[in-house]
Amino acid sequence: MRKNHPNAIGISLKIEGSELIYCANAYPVCTYSGLAHETSTKSWLDYSSYLDAATAGAFDLLQNIRLLDNLMKLGIEG
C-alpha cells in the first residue's frame, strides 16, 4: 500500500531510491511456458488444437529449480 504520509503507529520507512539491474542474459532461462519441455522446438501454437497442446503440457508453467541458486548469486552480487 502506498502512502504519502508516515504511519500513525509503528515505524515508517522512506525509500530514497532503488536500482534495477538487467540479468536475463547471465544464466539460462529457469521459468518458461508455452512449450511441452525446456528444449522443445514446438510451441503451443504448433499443435492442431488447444486440447492437444494442453495434453502435451504446452500450457504448463515450468521451472527448472536447479537454476534458482543462480538467482541467489545475482542477489548477493547486486
Tell me about this structure.
With 78 residues, the protein is α+β, with helices and mostly antiparallel strands. The chain is built from 2 helices and 2 strands. Strands 1-2 form a two-stranded antiparallel sheet. The longest helix has 10 residues, at 68-77. The relative contact order is 0.19. The model has no long low-confidence stretch (mean pLDDT 83).
Short description:
This protein is of the alpha+beta class. The chain is 22% helix and 8% strand.
Write the layout of secondary structure elements.
Layout: E1 31-33, H1 50-56, E2 61-63, H2 68-77
Antiparallel strand pairs: 1-2
Descriptive keywords:
78 residues, alpha+beta, 2 strands, 2 helices, elongated
What form results from the Cα inertia axes?
elongated
Assign the structural class, choosing from mainly alpha, mainly beta, alpha/beta, alpha+beta, or little secondary structure: alpha+beta
Instruction: Indicate the radius of gyration in whole angstroms.
Output: 20 Å
Percentage of residues in helical conformation: 10-25%
Helix-strand pattern, N to C? EHEH
Largest sheet, in brief, is: 2 strands, antiparallel
How far apart are the first and last residues' alpha carbons, in Å? 26 Å
Catalogue the unreliable spans: none
Secondary structure tally: strands: 2
Number of helical regions: 2
Beta-strand percent range: 5-15%
Strand order of the largest sheet: 1-2
Overall average residue pLDDT: 83
Quaternary: single chain
